[in-house]
Sequence to fold (307 residues):
Amino acid sequence: MGKAKKKQPKRSFDYLAPLAAIVVILMVMFAIVLTTASNQKVLSETTVQYEGPVLKNGATQPEVTAKAAYAEDVETGKPLYYKNGDEPMLPASTTKIATALVALQTYDLENVATVSGMKSVFGQKMGLMDGENITFKNLLYGLLVYSGNDAAEVLARNYPGGRDKFIEAMNQLVSTVGLTKTHFVNPSGIDAYLHFSTARDLAKLAEYGEQNPNFAEFTRTQKAAVTSVDGNIIHPLESTNKLLGKVEGVIGVKTGTTENSGESLVTMIDRNGHKVVITVLDSKDRFVDTEKLIDWIFESYSWEVQK
Fold:
């Protein structure tokens, strides 16, 4: 029988190998956690830091004659000026922002409408005549450039299901955009019971509209001459928005006036790469009020990222 091998004693450091492996694993996991936390901090600082333009020290809000006014930074939705901005008021022809958007969702711009019932239309008119054939595109020019009530009625009456269904679509648009204090009962903005909006809601509606290139083009047009399909009837149009071409950066949107509503104006401004929307309602001078707010906002706010 051979000699039995002598059992070698286990070295003490052999027991440390599993422990060392565990330590290495824990160190790697800790490093991953630290790196992830650091990356999240950097990401948070870069994505959350910018919250919109900041009012400069010492800036004081200007007084305007409008009973309600609201201004907002389009990029962030940050309010820049507020005066009764959520008070329901008569919107007058700023209503036509919604009228135009429903029409743009519904009609092919090159399709043709036949005009009728013009004797029942009152207020501002582009001069449509019964029996006239005119494209929806030219009706929208008349609606948004010259604020024609006749254009609004023709657009509404040609809607599938008729005028009432068109107004239903206007209020469905209100819901889609998320407006909470707006309701329409006619397409032109004639003063009526249950026809109301707010300065903030109209600003939001204008922002929504400006995303449509055709809407943006119509509202920034200063002058146009549109015709009937046969070319025999010419409608010269000049914008009711006197700030277009006068005040730097003004690119639309819509005026409004009635005896009861006073003067109204929704304005989109794009200056130095910064977009601002301003609404004034029931103003004694909508253009003076709006220009005052434009000057104040771009002088009193800083768009630089705060560190």
The domain at 56-302 is CATH 3.40.710.10 (Beta-lactamase). The two ends are 86 Å apart (CA to CA).
